[in-house]
Design goal:
- The structure is a single chain.
- With about 240 residues, the chain is mainly alpha-helical.
- The chain has nine helices and three strands; from the N terminus they run H-H-H-H-H-H-E-E-E-H-H-H.
- The chain folds into two domains: about 90 residues, Orthogonal Bundle (Helix Hairpins); about 100 residues, minor pseudopilin epsh fold, CATH 3.55.40.20.
- It has a three-stranded antiparallel beta sheet with strand order 2-1-3.
- Helix 2 packs antiparallel against helix 4.
- About 35% of the residues are buried.
- The structure holds manganese (II) ion.
- Manganese (II) ion (MN) binds next to helix 2.
Length: about 240
Protein backbone atom coordinates (compact mmCIF):
# COMPACT_ATOMS: atom_id res chain seq x y z
CA UNK A 1 0.00 0.00 0.00
CA UNK A 2 1.26 3.40 -0.86
CA UNK A 3 1.76 5.84 1.95
CA UNK A 4 0.54 9.33 1.17
CA UNK A 5 2.92 12.23 1.27
CA UNK A 6 1.04 13.81 4.15
CA UNK A 7 1.62 10.75 6.28
CA UNK A 8 5.25 10.71 5.30
CA UNK A 9 5.59 14.36 6.19
CA UNK A 10 3.92 13.98 9.53
CA UNK A 11 5.93 10.92 10.47
CA UNK A 12 9.23 12.55 9.63
CA UNK A 13 8.16 15.70 11.42
CA UNK A 14 7.33 13.76 14.57
CA UNK A 15 10.71 12.12 14.41
CA UNK A 16 12.37 15.45 14.18
CA UNK A 17 10.52 16.94 17.11
CA UNK A 18 11.44 14.06 19.37
CA UNK A 19 15.07 14.17 18.32
CA UNK A 20 15.35 17.90 18.70
CA UNK A 21 14.04 17.64 22.23
CA UNK A 22 16.59 15.00 23.11
CA UNK A 23 19.41 16.75 21.27
CA UNK A 24 20.65 13.39 20.05
CA UNK A 25 22.42 12.61 16.82
CA UNK A 26 19.93 11.70 14.13
CA UNK A 27 18.64 8.17 14.42
CA UNK A 28 14.94 7.69 13.82
CA UNK A 29 12.75 8.90 11.00
CA UNK A 30 13.49 12.53 10.52
CA UNK A 31 13.26 15.16 7.92
CA UNK A 32 11.16 17.85 9.40
CA UNK A 33 9.56 19.03 6.24
CA UNK A 34 6.35 19.90 8.03
CA UNK A 35 8.02 20.96 11.22
CA UNK A 36 9.48 24.03 9.67
CA UNK A 37 7.02 26.63 10.87
CA UNK A 38 7.49 28.13 14.27
CA UNK A 39 4.56 28.90 16.54
CA UNK A 40 4.62 32.36 15.05
CA UNK A 41 3.82 30.82 11.71
CA UNK A 42 7.11 31.24 9.93
CA UNK A 43 9.39 28.69 8.30
CA UNK A 44 12.51 27.78 10.23
CA UNK A 45 15.96 26.41 9.53
CA UNK A 46 15.94 22.86 10.94
CA UNK A 47 18.32 21.67 13.62
CA UNK A 48 21.43 20.22 12.04
CA UNK A 49 21.55 16.52 12.99
CA UNK A 50 25.33 16.57 13.58
CA UNK A 51 28.05 19.08 14.44
CA UNK A 52 29.30 21.50 11.79
CA UNK A 53 32.64 19.72 11.64
CA UNK A 54 31.19 16.19 11.78
CA UNK A 55 31.44 15.57 8.04
CA UNK A 56 35.15 16.38 7.89
CA UNK A 57 37.20 15.63 5.89
CA UNK A 58 34.53 15.13 3.21
CA UNK A 59 32.68 18.39 3.79
CA UNK A 60 34.68 20.98 5.69
CA UNK A 61 33.40 22.74 8.78
CA UNK A 62 33.89 26.09 7.07
CA UNK A 63 31.64 25.12 4.18
CA UNK A 64 29.04 23.70 6.55
CA UNK A 65 29.10 26.87 8.62
CA UNK A 66 28.58 29.15 5.64
CA UNK A 67 26.16 26.87 3.87
CA UNK A 68 23.98 26.06 6.86
CA UNK A 69 24.08 29.27 8.84
CA UNK A 70 24.27 31.78 5.98
CA UNK A 71 22.85 30.33 2.78
CA UNK A 72 20.03 28.28 4.24
CA UNK A 73 19.14 30.95 6.76
CA UNK A 74 19.06 33.48 3.94
CA UNK A 75 16.56 31.39 1.97
CA UNK A 76 14.34 30.97 5.01
CA UNK A 77 14.47 34.66 5.87
CA UNK A 78 13.42 35.64 2.36
CA UNK A 79 10.81 32.87 2.19
CA UNK A 80 9.21 34.21 5.36
CA UNK A 81 8.98 37.68 3.88
CA UNK A 82 7.09 36.24 0.92
CA UNK A 83 5.07 33.78 3.02
CA UNK A 84 3.62 36.60 5.09
CA UNK A 85 1.25 37.11 2.14
CA UNK A 86 0.32 33.45 1.72
CA UNK A 87 -1.90 31.03 3.59
CA UNK A 88 0.11 28.99 6.10
CA UNK A 89 0.95 25.54 4.77
CA UNK A 90 3.67 22.90 4.87
CA UNK A 91 6.55 23.61 2.56
CA UNK A 92 5.79 20.61 0.30
CA UNK A 93 2.26 21.84 -0.29
CA UNK A 94 3.50 25.32 -1.01
CA UNK A 95 5.91 23.97 -3.63
CA UNK A 96 3.32 21.64 -5.18
CA UNK A 97 0.93 24.53 -5.61
CA UNK A 98 3.23 27.23 -6.90
CA UNK A 99 1.13 27.65 -10.04
CA UNK A 100 -1.89 28.66 -7.99
CA UNK A 101 -0.05 31.50 -6.25
CA UNK A 102 -0.29 35.10 -7.42
CA UNK A 103 2.08 35.57 -10.35
CA UNK A 104 4.48 37.88 -8.56
CA UNK A 105 4.98 35.43 -5.68
CA UNK A 106 5.73 32.40 -7.85
CA UNK A 107 9.41 33.09 -8.55
CA UNK A 108 10.35 34.01 -4.96
CA UNK A 109 8.53 30.96 -3.60
CA UNK A 110 10.25 28.79 -6.19
CA UNK A 111 13.69 30.13 -5.27
CA UNK A 112 13.45 30.60 -1.51
CA UNK A 113 10.89 27.88 -0.75
CA UNK A 114 12.78 25.49 -2.98
CA UNK A 115 16.01 26.55 -1.30
CA UNK A 116 14.56 25.85 2.12
CA UNK A 117 13.15 22.45 1.20
CA UNK A 118 16.22 21.32 -0.72
CA UNK A 119 18.71 22.24 1.96
CA UNK A 120 16.64 20.59 4.67
CA UNK A 121 16.61 17.39 2.66
CA UNK A 122 20.32 17.77 1.95
CA UNK A 123 21.42 18.10 5.61
CA UNK A 124 19.42 15.04 6.51
CA UNK A 125 20.79 13.09 3.54
CA UNK A 126 24.25 13.14 5.11
CA UNK A 127 25.70 11.50 8.20
CA UNK A 128 29.14 11.18 9.80
CA UNK A 129 28.32 7.52 10.49
CA UNK A 130 28.93 5.20 7.56
CA UNK A 131 25.74 3.43 6.63
CA UNK A 132 27.11 1.15 3.90
CA UNK A 133 25.26 0.29 0.75
CA UNK A 134 21.48 0.28 0.95
CA UNK A 135 19.78 -3.05 1.44
CA UNK A 136 16.09 -3.84 1.79
CA UNK A 137 13.51 -2.48 -0.60
CA UNK A 138 15.68 0.48 -1.61
CA UNK A 139 18.66 -1.71 -2.43
CA UNK A 140 16.46 -4.07 -4.43
CA UNK A 141 14.83 -1.24 -6.36
CA UNK A 142 18.21 0.31 -7.22
CA UNK A 143 19.57 -2.99 -8.50
CA UNK A 144 16.35 -3.68 -10.43
CA UNK A 145 16.63 -0.29 -12.14
CA UNK A 146 20.38 0.18 -12.61
CA UNK A 147 21.76 -3.35 -12.55
CA UNK A 148 24.18 -2.80 -9.69
CA UNK A 149 24.67 -0.25 -6.93
CA UNK A 150 27.95 0.85 -8.54
CA UNK A 151 26.18 1.46 -11.83
CA UNK A 152 23.62 3.60 -10.02
CA UNK A 153 26.41 5.61 -8.37
CA UNK A 154 28.03 6.10 -11.77
CA UNK A 155 24.80 7.48 -13.19
CA UNK A 156 24.03 9.67 -10.18
CA UNK A 157 27.55 11.09 -10.35
CA UNK A 158 27.23 11.70 -14.06
CA UNK A 159 23.97 13.61 -13.55
CA UNK A 160 25.60 15.78 -10.88
CA UNK A 161 28.56 16.56 -13.12
CA UNK A 162 26.50 17.13 -16.25
CA UNK A 163 24.39 19.96 -14.87
CA UNK A 164 25.73 23.24 -16.19
CA UNK A 165 25.57 26.09 -13.69
CA UNK A 166 23.76 26.01 -10.35
CA UNK A 167 21.30 23.34 -9.36
CA UNK A 168 20.75 19.90 -7.92
CA UNK A 169 20.96 16.26 -8.97
CA UNK A 170 18.36 13.87 -7.59
CA UNK A 171 17.27 10.31 -7.23
CA UNK A 172 13.49 10.58 -7.27
CA UNK A 173 10.41 8.44 -7.45
CA UNK A 174 7.86 9.32 -10.10
CA UNK A 175 4.11 8.91 -9.79
CA UNK A 176 4.37 5.34 -11.08
CA UNK A 177 6.94 4.66 -8.35
CA UNK A 178 9.68 4.36 -10.94
CA UNK A 179 13.12 5.56 -9.90
CA UNK A 180 14.43 8.45 -11.95
CA UNK A 181 17.68 10.39 -11.93
CA UNK A 182 17.09 14.04 -12.68
CA UNK A 183 18.70 17.43 -12.49
CA UNK A 184 16.98 20.68 -11.61
CA UNK A 185 18.19 24.24 -12.05
CA UNK A 186 18.62 26.81 -9.30
CA UNK A 187 16.45 25.72 -6.34
CA UNK A 188 13.85 23.81 -8.31
CA UNK A 189 13.17 20.29 -7.10
CA UNK A 190 11.29 17.09 -8.00
CA UNK A 191 8.26 18.07 -5.91
CA UNK A 192 7.54 20.91 -8.32
CA UNK A 193 7.27 18.32 -11.09
CA UNK A 194 5.13 15.79 -9.25
CA UNK A 195 7.93 13.51 -8.10
CA UNK A 196 9.26 12.55 -4.67
CA UNK A 197 12.95 13.24 -3.95
CA UNK A 198 14.83 10.41 -2.26
CA UNK A 199 18.35 11.85 -2.43
CA UNK A 200 19.62 15.22 -3.61
CA UNK A 201 23.06 16.71 -3.98
CA UNK A 202 23.57 20.45 -4.06
CA UNK A 203 25.93 21.34 -6.90
CA UNK A 204 25.86 25.11 -6.50
CA UNK A 205 29.45 26.30 -6.20
CA UNK A 206 28.75 27.54 -2.66
CA UNK A 207 28.42 23.86 -1.67
CA UNK A 208 32.02 23.03 -2.57
CA UNK A 209 34.16 25.83 -3.95
CA UNK A 210 35.91 26.73 -0.68
CA UNK A 211 37.18 23.19 -0.32
CA UNK A 212 37.23 21.68 -3.78
CA UNK A 213 37.56 24.79 -5.97
CA UNK A 214 36.46 23.91 -9.50
CA UNK A 215 36.60 20.14 -8.87
CA UNK A 216 32.92 19.38 -8.60
CA UNK A 217 33.73 15.71 -9.24
CA UNK A 218 35.77 15.52 -6.04
CA UNK A 219 32.97 17.14 -4.08
CA UNK A 220 30.38 14.73 -5.48
CA UNK A 221 32.61 11.78 -4.60
CA UNK A 222 33.02 13.21 -1.08
CA UNK A 223 29.26 13.66 -0.76
CA UNK A 224 28.74 10.04 -1.80
CA UNK A 225 30.97 9.03 1.11
CA UNK A 226 28.66 10.60 3.67
CA UNK A 227 25.23 9.73 2.27
CA UNK A 228 22.85 8.50 4.94
CA UNK A 229 21.40 5.51 3.08
CA UNK A 230 19.22 4.67 6.06
CA UNK A 231 17.48 7.98 5.59
CA UNK A 232 17.15 7.48 1.84
CA UNK A 233 15.69 4.03 2.52
CA UNK A 234 13.14 5.55 4.91
CA UNK A 235 12.09 8.04 2.27
CA UNK A 236 11.78 5.24 -0.27
CA UNK A 237 9.70 3.13 2.08
CA UNK A 238 7.45 6.04 2.92
CA UNK A 239 6.94 6.98 -0.73
CA UNK A 240 6.57 3.46 -2.13
CA UNK A 241 5.04 1.59 0.79
CA UNK A 242 7.66 -1.12 0.25
CA UNK A 243 9.65 -2.34 3.25
MN1 LIG B 1 23.25 25.28 -1.18
Amino acid sequence: MSIGENQWTRREAIGHTALAALALPMMGPVSLMAQNRSERGSYEVPTLPYALDALEPYISAKIMELHYTKHHRGYVHKLNQVAANIEQQPIEKLLQNIDSLPQKLQTPVRNFGGGHYNHTLYWYSMTPTTTGQPGGALGEAIVAKYGTFDEFIKNFRKAALTLFGSGWAWLSLDKHQEMVLEITRNQDNPIMFGRTPLLGVDVWEHAYYLQYHNRRDRYVDAFLNVVNWNRVAQRYQAASGKQ
